[in-house]
Amino acid sequence: MDANSRKIMGLVSEMNMRFVVPVYQRPYSWGETQCVQLWDDILSTGRKRGSAHFTGSIVTIQDGSMSEQGVTPLLLIDGQQRITTIMLLLIALARYAERHADKDLPFSRDEIVQGGYLTNRFRTGEDHYKLTLSKTDRAFYQALVDSVEAGGDAAPASSDPTSRLSRNLALFEARVEALDDVASVWAGLQRLEVVSIALAQGFDDPQVIFESMNSTGKDLSTADLVRNFVLMGYPVAEQGELYRTYWRPIEETLGVVGSSYDDAFDDFIRCYLTVANAPELFTDRDAYPAFKRHVLSRGYAEGDRMKVFALRLRRFAGYYAAAVRGAFAGDDEITDALRRIGWLDVPAAVPLLMELLDGYERKDFSRESLLEMLCTLESYLFRRAVCDCEGSALAAFLPSLAARVSATREEEGNVAQVLVAALLNEEGTSRRFPSDEEFAHALRTRDMFGFAGTHYLLARVEDEANAGALEELMAGSWGVEHVLPVGALKMDEWREALGDDPERAYEEHLGALGNLVLTDAGFDLQECALYAKLGRLRPAGRLAMWEGVEGATIWGGDAIAARTEALAAQALAIWQLPQLSDEDRRAYRALGRAATAAGATFADLFAAGVVEMDDVLVSANLMYAGRATVTSTGKIMLANGEMFDDPTAAYERFLGTVGAAAGGLNGWLYWRRGEGGPTLDELRLRL
Prior knowledge:
By secondary structure, the chain is of the alpha+beta class. The protein has 4 domains: 2-219, no CATH class; 232-438, no CATH class; 453-574, no CATH class; 600-686. It is 52% helix and 9% strand. The strands form 3 sheets. A 6-stranded mixed sheet has the order 1-6-3-4-2-5. A 5-stranded antiparallel sheet has the order 12-11-10-9-13. A hairpin with a 5-residue loop joins strand 10 and strand 11. Helix 16 packs parallel to helix 18. The radius of gyration is 32 Å and the shape is flat.
């Protein structure tokens, strides 16, 4: 590693070099806040004679190559955002100088264009540009530089006014144009200082540097760190192909672009880790360290196995996308079931859905079992929402269900029955599956107009009568409205319909389920007669839910109560309570207690003395005989000397060494302590 203090303009303008943003780096992402901060620093520095301003570090590494034109590419490990932003400011200054050729300026367009700041003047192709961005930013940035070289203020043909490059360039151009002392911007740029850190390939670890050096600008997201960790371990010459072949398909599967990328990818990684390590939970801060532990402990960083891991990530990205977007390719029934769960908006359910989809894809259970479990999960979540059960209780509970499902899959048990038993056995707790009595009582008595799920309830009831209506009714043009209007007590007609105690009846029935309908009308009439109200709310197409409402000549407490009972009965039939015998529930209760041991690690067994140094682990697979040894530090060492923290990672690698397929086997079940001894899973359950 070579570190030196440098003027950033001198670093940028060095001859026969160019900065290259690696494919694993995030796209240009600075917004107005970061640009304005840099602008203020530059302006302040330029207005103070003799001052300088330190603006962090620029970390580069040579890829060991030089082009035929003699240009050396420097990979930007840290500093992409600042370098790119300074280049945009230089473009803004070049355009300003051309527009104001009559002004006495300390810089000119020709100096900026030909002086080595934006281009290597006598080089062509990629070597011509002093900065090569990654991904979709590259072509547009190069077009910007080309337009400055050509002269004039015309935007490139590929101009996208919504891109960060376009917006930040426009910001700088507006600020430069508004200044009286533009020379201070140029002076400030000349005085910006950085620590230039040049890494030596093969000696310095760019990933470690990358993780520790991002101290200015926008914080790195989990997506940034994960992508860099996966791709940076490969030689520079292979990174582009690896990104296109293995990583880009993950991004395409997730369907994330632009500003939504980090949030969606970060959430996917948290969900993936929850599935892989259930029932352990992960926060934003924990996700990347947990990801590294997961990869390293399972040996995915060894040899060429990161590609295998990328394929696994892509598979689970597909499950995540299906769960979040409610779309399962090639199966309309599964898609409908996922979409119904999605409308309930319970993010904690996503890891469990991913586990179920993986089980189905791996043929651990049938399509009918998957549909049964999805319907059960929908009933569970919706009943809890209607009964106003504690939502926070699901944050840890649903991932624990993923752990039970995983354990049952490995033991080739009945996953659907285990899931039902796990839900029913929470009776009497904050995680309970509401009974028919509790569900019906809530439907009859709670304020359903103020309940966010009423729209879905009415649409789902309608869909039972008119198949296919659900999708349309959940669209934005439809909403929930009262039949008995909010202003009813101001009108004699309604007071008479409400009976002897209209105030009490109004309070009891205004927000009742039976008084609510779906309508595509733009607004509700709050003070009007019944015929006017129905005329306004009635949709153009006939809905089954309007039966009992449409032809009514009087709409009071009795009519509302009767309709509430009818809708409650329909809801009970749609969102049913699953049935399981007491005997099966007791049996699965014991299994559920055992499944919680899945959170124990091999290190826990070693720390508790359940396994000790020099213990021999024997393969329980009769087709593939093999041994491993427990080391003094509590790791599993294979015969070839490779060491692992996790039994599954160790067993997968062992199978690879004997030429067997490594996918899908749980090492806890396939390693025994000694010949004929207990499996590690049995030891874990004892612990």
